[in-house]
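Margin note: ligand = zinc ion.
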Amino acid sequence: MRSWPAPKTSPLPGAGPALRLYDTAAGEVRDTAPDPTARMYVCGITPYDATHLGHANTYLAFDLVNRVWRDAGHHVHFTQNATDVDDPLLERAAQTGVDWRDLADDQIELFRSDMEALRILPPDEYVGVTEVVDQVAALVEVLRDKGATYQVDGDVYFSVATSPKFGAVSGYSDERMLELFAERGGDPGRPGKRHPLDWLLWRAERPGEPSWPSPFGPGRPGWHVECTAIALNRLGSGFDVSGGGSDLIFPHHEMGASEGHVATGEWPFAKAYVHVGMVALDGEKMSKSRGNLVFVSRLRAEHEPMAVRLALLAHHYRADWEWTADQIVTAEARLARWRAAVEVASGPDGAELLRRVRRHMSDDLDTPGAVAAVDAWAERALAGEGDDRGAPALVRATVDTLLGVAL
Ligand code: 5CA
Ligand code: ZN
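Resulting structure:
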């Protein structure tokens, strides 16, 4: 599928330090130690409603991973999917009387324009599941040949008992897994399953639902296996970062990791599992199913996209936080201050500011620290301090390239 246009980045002198990130599976902050080419897979949207601030915050975090890696001298190979066929999309299409393909196309187009406006670096491969159904079916076949699957009324399931690594990503208790599986699209109580946590790999055709041919008969892919197939085919196993919001830790990333491991015999499927906190509104996680949403498209109709980006950057990516309207006001004031500050003729040491921003960003994407460092520089520059004539241009480039904010 078409991705979206890349924002321009300004070259910075020298190179930044290696990126350290919190890996959910390890439970600690670790060095990411990619080869010259760093490989990242980020779970994309299910396109049945417009991009909200929670989505934007998640994609912003991985945009920063991408920027910090590039600044450290890596080439980045970045893949993202779009879940353009799945239950919630088909349900919404049926409710609204819209063809599911048109609904997905329209929402993906809106997502592209939101990502472009927020200056999110585009994936090298933006893959709709409907484009690669044959590849997903081929992976299900591999799993079948390894003896990891069985069928219930024509639907193909992954047998959790065949996965020695199940649980290694989330570290959750059985009880918690069962609870989350039921909440997040799973079917723990379905009669005929061998284990409540066995999950669907291939859903046999139902009347009125789209389907594709496969060795298991006509049907469509289950959710988790789509990402496993796309990541394996585009990046190969052992890629550097598997990313998404923290609601994907379980079941999605746990089950995907088991599929990858059983299919390839290689572990880890991803070297680091990186998860972004949930953005809430009115005390509850922002979600399409709850409908408590602040859409990026609506917000940027009234405010500059760069102010939206700055409002998100004020939070650490791993924090859960709540959106309130005052945050965009604060961000607009900050943006105006930074813009005024880079217009001065000279200011405090620009190279020192670059070092500070690099240090904060490489330390598990400490954006609040980086933003505070720029604030401090701007305040001093506006007070007439410092005689570094190159500083305004260097600060502009630093903020542009590492934080993605065009001043
Ligand atoms: N298509 C699947 C992934 S393969 C999916 O989860 N789609 S989604 O549209 O529901 O979510 C897209 C991304 O936004 C996921 O990474 C999800 O974890 C993240 N996300 C969803 N809601 C929020 C929220 N309130 N705050 C932060 N991130 C969120
Ligand atoms: Zn995914």
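The two ends are 31 Å apart (CA to CA).
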